[in-house]
Structures are given as structure tokens and as C-alpha cells.
Amino acid sequence: MKFLTSLGLSFACLALTAQTPETTATRRKCGTVQQDVSQHQAFEAWMQASLQKDNQFANAKKASVVYTIPIVFHIIHSGTTVPARNISQAQVNSQIVILNNDYRKLNADFSTYVTQSAFVSSAADIQINFCAASVDPNGTALAEPGIDRVNVTTKGWSALPYATSYIESTVKPGTIWDPTKYYNVWVLQFGGSDVGTLGYAQFPTIPSGTSPVTDMVGQGGAASTDGVVVDYRYVGNTGTATAPYNKGRTLTHETGHWLGLWHIWGDDNDCSGTDYVSDTPNQQVENSSCPSTNGAVKTDACATVAPGFNYQNYMDYSDDKCMAMFTAGQRDRMQAVMANCIRRKTLNNAVACVSVGIKEEAAGILVDVFPNPTSGRVNINVELMDTQDFSVSVMNTLGQTVKDVKQTASNGGLVTLDLSEHPQGVYFVTVKSKTASVTKRVVLQ
């Protein structure tokens, strides 16, 4: 895998558009052009000040927030004559499931590859969910949740594949949905000097007037290009997904950049670099592939003894199969970005996931969902102001209704549903009466 900085733009959550393309031959390989040192330092000054100010996780005074991000995949293709690029809904769905499992620490392969006690204890639930957008920017229901199919021939664009410069100048601005409401992901084939690219991300933007980096106001990445680009051969774990990057970890990794994470080894070739996260061990260079023994300790000049370096981290360059964790320190950074950064902090309130949005309360109706998380059975306690019909439905992050119960002439009560036959992950419980609707999240684990 290779990270480039297209068009000489900055790799950071601050100054210019931060691009991190990734290219592969037989291994992931980094080619990122280093950003200006002053910009790098300015971003980190803001990040560390934000973490200190919020005191989010140090002493449990402030709990982390569970965020839900609407995601749309713009599938860039040239018609049915090249069906491989026009990937299936099943392949997109597999990627959304992987994102949710990875960011909620629900991935089944965690215990297989993370065996060192130090890494087990530092591994974290990021408490960020991703849901397939159910409506487009006009509020029209999508035939395929989370998917916007774009035929380049009807757009009058150049023929695929595309170099990064064309993606930035034409493809992204010509297809992006409001980045304050959607996480935009473009799926296409890379060409030109970027042949073999896996994907790249744009970093978040510092909010205006944030101390101590007031000099960075207005210099963030452009809204018209905000998001992640992934080659169609490295999406999800089915269809066109190609080994050794066929388990959806390319988008997990790129989303980490989109949420403000650096590479775990700090983009240096010695022990002087840093990713500014205290619980990721110092690492000399990027790791490639996976050890022949699952969960084996790997050491280098910076991490000379067990537990070694954290090649299982999503922000390394390991093969997909042994990428299996984020740390608590990485969670802190991503939570800070979601709470503060432009075009990130509004995503949790977006209504694109479900038509009614995530609405925790409404006049005339009280809803309590417990236990949450649940291992299967979930109780929904409903209180209504008067006697009326109401329904309880459960939707998964792919926009599919998995449970639907209707009650007639009732003023509420306890509704118990069994989700144990469904995959682990995030679900949305919606209680709807004739006068109001409430939607809450529940985690099945």
C-alpha cells in the first residue's frame, strides 16, 4: 500500500486538502509527501489542547459519545459492459458491516490476532457507527441504501481509470453529497501515475477560531472534496475484493485518517517519528504482511521486546487479515474530531440514515431501550400520553427492517424482541405513534 499526497497537497487535518492515496504491488508501501512541519505542529497543538480541555477519558468525568455517521458510496463506473467496477450492493453492504464491527470492536478476528495482553487491554471500542444513507440530498428514498451509482459516460467525463488529479478536480466535486450530512466514499479504478492505488483520505478541518491555532482559520480541506476514495478491488470482503486486501480494512484504515489518525509508525524510517498516541508502541517503519503464526510478537529497533510493535493496528500497513484493532488513545483522537471538527461534528445529527433521523425523544411519547448493549433480547418500554396504535420496528445499518411489531389501542407497555438470530452490530429501534416518532440505537454483541 502506498500513500501519496496528490497535487502536492498537505497531509493533515488543518492546512490544505490532506490526501493519502495508497498503492500496492506485493505489499503496502508508503509514499506520502510529508506536510510542512509548522502545519503538522499546529494541528497537534490543537489536538492535544482539545483532548486536555475535554478531559474525555482520563478520569471518567466525561463519557465518550456514541456517534452514528450516514455513509454513501458513489460507485463510479462506465456501464454494464464493465460490471466489475459497478460493484454490487452486497459488496457495499459487506463493507458497512466491516466498518461497524471494526469501529465498535465487534470484529470476530480480534481474539485470533491480538494475543499480547498489553494490546488486548489497550484495544478500544471507538463508539462510532456507520449506517447506509436511506435518502439522497433531496430527501428521496434510495433504491439501494448507501449507494449512488454514477455512469461516467452520461456525465461526459473522460474514460476510466482515473488519476488522483482528475478525481480531485472533476469526480469528487461533480458527485459529492453535502459533507456535513454524509460521509462520502468514492469507489472507482485508479489510473495514470496512480495505477495500483488502494485508496486515500482527506483529513478533517480545524474549527474557526480554535485556540491555540487561530492562524489556521479557513485553511482546511475543501468541502467539495471531503471524503475517501477506494479502488473497487479493495471494498468489503466479497465480489471484486482482492487478496491480501480483501477483508475491507482499506476503508477502515482510510476512515481512520478521515477521523484524524496518523500512521502508527509516524511516517519515519527510524525511531524518532510519532503518531501522537501514547498507547501505540514506537515503531521503526511500516509493517507489511502478517506473521506466519497468528498473533505472534513482532519486534524491531524501536520495540525490542514483547509485546513488540502493534502490527495488528488498523493504521499500520499489514495485510487485511491481521489488522484487528484501534487503541484507546486513537479513540480519544477520533472522538475529539467528531466533537469539534468542521463537517464531522454535524454528521451525528444527520437524518440520512433513517427517514425520521436519530430522535431520542418527542412530545407525547417516552421510550426506554434496555439492556443496551444486548446479547440478544431487547426490551422496549413505551409510554404514550393517550390510547392509540403504535409500532416498534428495528432496522440494521444497511437500511433493512429486521423486526416490525404493531400494537393497537394501547397507551404503551413493554415490548420484548429477540435479535439473537441477527449479526452483531448496531441497530435502530423506532417507536412510531400517530403523533410522534422516537428512534434509538441499540448494540447487539
List the helices and strands and how they pair.
Blueprint: E1 22-24, E2 28-29, H1 37-54, E3 67-77, H2 89-103, H3 110-113, H4 117-122, E4 128-132, E5 147-151, H5 152-155, H6 164-175, E6 183-188, E7 197-201, E8 228-231, H7 249-258, H8 328-340, E9 365-370, E10 377-396, E11 401-418, E12 425-433, E13 437-444
Parallel strand pairs: 3-4, 3-5, 3-6, 6-8
Antiparallel strand pairs: 1-2, 1-7, 7-8, 9-10, 10-11, 10-12, 12-13
- The N- to C-terminal Cα distance equals 32 Å
Shape estimate? globular
- Mean pLDDT across every amino acid position: 84
Q: Which residues form runs of ≥5 with pLDDT under 50?
A: 1-18, 24-35, 56-61, 211-219
Domain module count: 2
CATH homolog superfamily of the largest domain: Collagenase (Catalytic Domain)
Helix content: 10-25%
Enter the CATH topology name of the largest domain. Answer: Collagenase (Catalytic Domain)
CATH architecture of the largest domain: 3-Layer(aba) Sandwich
**Percent of sequence in beta strands:** 15-25%
Question: From the alpha-carbon coordinates, what is the Rg to the nearest angstrom?
Answer: 22 Å
**How would you sum up the major sheet?**
8 strands, mixed
Highest-level CATH class of the largest domain: Alpha Beta
